[in-house]
């Protein structure tokens, strides 16, 4: 964990139906601040996205928000963050978040969160990076994603070691353990499909 100075958190711009989602976001924010790890996030003040940032800030931590101009113009940007970077597009947002992060955590969220999750895992499969990726399965939210990943392997579209590109945990404490113990990606996950 000594090399982990910042973590990108991909999560919802809504709070969702379960109170467990917000509780997990707040606990993650608190722990990031206590561990001296900078939060890199989508820059919004809304949903569990805003809750994780609020907790980092409330506990004395640092927060970098990355938000496209069109969302900033709609006044959903979190103006109290340590650093707010406005970008031209959602693609640029993901690239900036990637460039500023040592690890990635995925909390519950919608289609945008799912897009971010799949892209960061794909980049690791393609050997663009080797950083830890952790999916927090709060209250069983990502159970269907677990099945989908296994179906992709079982269907012959990914090597079984592709499942080692990320970890799925069920508690905030599990996030930090998974980051510490994340294995290096096996080149076979790419080479087996070339």
Give the termini distance in whole angstroms. Answer: 33 Å
Shape: globular
The helix count comes to: 8
CATH topology description: Rossmann fold
Physical arrangement of strands within the biggest beta sheet: 4-3-2-1-5-6-7
Summarize it.
The chain contains eight helices and seven strands. By secondary structure, it is an alpha/beta fold.
Structural description of this entry:
The protein is an alpha/beta fold and 194 residues long. The protein has a single domain (6-191), classed as Rossmann fold, CATH 3.40.50.450. It has helices at residues 19-34, 47-58, 69-73, 90-99, 111-125, 143-154, 172-181, 188-191, and strands at residues 6-10, 38-41, 63-68, 83-87, 103-106, 133-136, 167-169. The protein has a seven-stranded parallel beta sheet with strand order 4-3-2-1-5-6-7, sandwiched between helices. Helix 1 (19-34) runs parallel beside helix 2. The radius of gyration is 16 Å and the shape is globular.
Keywords for this entry:
alpha/beta, seven-stranded parallel beta sheet, 7 strands, 43% helix
Please write out the topology:
Elements: E1 6-10, H1 19-34, E2 38-41, H2 47-58, E3 63-68, H3 69-73, E4 83-87, H4 90-99, E5 103-106, H5 111-125, E6 133-136, H6 143-154, E7 167-169, H7 172-181, H8 188-191
Parallel strand pairs: 1-2, 1-5, 2-3, 3-4, 5-6, 6-7
């Amino acid at each position: 964990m000594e090399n982990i100075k910042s973590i990108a958190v991909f999560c919802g711009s809504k709070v969702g139906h379960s109170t467990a989602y917000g509780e997990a976001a707040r606990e993650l924010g608190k722990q990031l601040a206590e561990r001296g790890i900078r939060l890199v996030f989508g820059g919004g003040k809304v949903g569990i996205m805003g809750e994780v940032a609020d907790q980092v800030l409330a506990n004395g931590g640092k927060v970098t928000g990355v938000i496209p101009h069109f969302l900033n113009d709609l006044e959903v940007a979190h103006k109290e963050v340590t650093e707010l970077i406005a970008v031209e597009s959602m693609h640029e947002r993901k690239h900036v978040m990637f460039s500023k992060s040592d690890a990635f955590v995925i909390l519950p969220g919608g289609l945008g969160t799912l897009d971010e999750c799949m892209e960061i895992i794909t980049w690791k499969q393609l050997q663009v990076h080797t950083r830890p990726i952790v999916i927090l399965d709060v209250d069983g939210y990502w159970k269907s994603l677990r099945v989908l990943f296994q179906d992709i392997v079982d269907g012959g579209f990914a090597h079984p070691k592709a499942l080692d590109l990320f970890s799925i945990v069920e508690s905030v404490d599990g996030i930090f353990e998974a980051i510490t113990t994340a294995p290096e990606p096996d080149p076979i996950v790419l080479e087996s499909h070339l």
